[in-house]
Amino acid sequence: MAERVAIELVLNGARRRVEVEPHHTLLDALRDDLALTGAKSCCLVGECGACTVMVDGRAVDSCLVLAAEVAGADVRTVEGLAPAGGGLSTLQAKFLEHGAVQCGYCIPGQLMAAQALLETTPQPSDPEIEEGLAGNLCRCACYEQIFDAVRETAATAVVEPRAPAAAAR
Ligand code: FES
Ligand code: FES
Questions:
Q1: Of 42, 55, 77, 99, which has the fewest Cβ atoms less than 10 A away?
Q2: Is the pTM of this model over 0.90?
Q3: Residue 44: CB within 6 Å of ligand 1?
Q4: Domain boundaries 5-80, CATH class
Q5: Residue 142, exposed/middle/buried by CB under 10 A (0-12, 13-18, 19+)?
């Protein structure tokens, strides 16, 4: 068996060190080594978006990224979305308010894709919202409700990019 590789990263604002299998993906590392199971394992080929997390401010399919590739990066998962004081972020609350959550399987990925969109484009047009969420499938077909939740968040809340995390490198 190949030797595990030690990496450091900033995960949801906290510096972490973890040993990963060299062939494991970021999704594997999050779920198996870091006990963060919010990002979901589904197609594993970059087609469904259920595994979406943010890496250095961009939404990425964590099933397509090797864990070793995120050494030194700022990684955010759905577990880090809620405010530190508890409760829900505005985006999460809007998902609930609009009934965007049915089985919930796609929702962590949808939230992280939407969060990345709103941080880079705080006032997205409808086509920009569609494009920002295009990589995230919902088998319960909650697309309209998800779209409305994102549009209303953009209209009613300031989604600030988080302050740059301390470099882990
Ligand atoms: S599990 Fe990663 S895109 Fe589907
Ligand atoms: S809420 Fe069920 S897959 Fe989206």
A1: 99
A2: yes
A3: yes
A4: alpha beta
A5: buried
| Residue-wise pLDDT tens digits, 26-39 | 999 999 999 999 99
The highest-level CATH class for domain 90-156 is mainly alpha
Which residue in 100, 98, 7, 26 sits closest to 64, CA to CA?
26
Show the tokens assigned to 165. Answer: 């995390």
Question: What is the structure's pLDDT at 169?
Answer: 43
Q: Which among 165, 141, 145, 139 is positioned nearest to 56, based on CA atoms? A: 165
Distance from C-alpha of 15 to C-alpha of 93, rounded to nearest angstrom: 28
150 lines ligand 1 (CB under 6 A): no
Nearest atom (ligand 1) to Cα of 135: 3
